[in-house]
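Chains adopt folds. We examine one example:
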Amino acid sequence: MVGLVAIGLYLCGGFWFSLSTFSVVPASPVTSLFSLGHWHMFTESRPLHHDLDVALYRDGVWATGDLAALFPERGTAGPGYLRRAYWADPERMATLAAAVCARQPAERVRFSRVQWPKTLGASTQPQRDGQRTALVDMACPQ
């Protein structure tokens, strides 16, 4: 029964998609709803990679930190701090900075986001020089 409902929804979506793309009927929110081809989740790929860099200030010298070593992954989805919802929120970034200060002896912590274009057709995407944006610069409590 569930399979028949799923097939029916799939056929209905294909029908609405064909109406919205191959006919003169203007696309409406209803036709876009049933067509997976109009959902950005399925159709838009991001042209840029993002990475988060941390710098630690100790004894008058800035040194790079390793977030993967400080916060190892617990699943296959990757580290949460690399998601846009995380690094775009100042409160979450301040919490991450405080956690880095607690795990690494430092006077200051600075986070920056690095963006670089994807290389099409390659499975490995090494970080290249790209646009760097400062996110957080915070003094560690002593």
Summary: The helical segments are 2-22, 29-34, 40-43, 67-70, 84-87, 90-103.
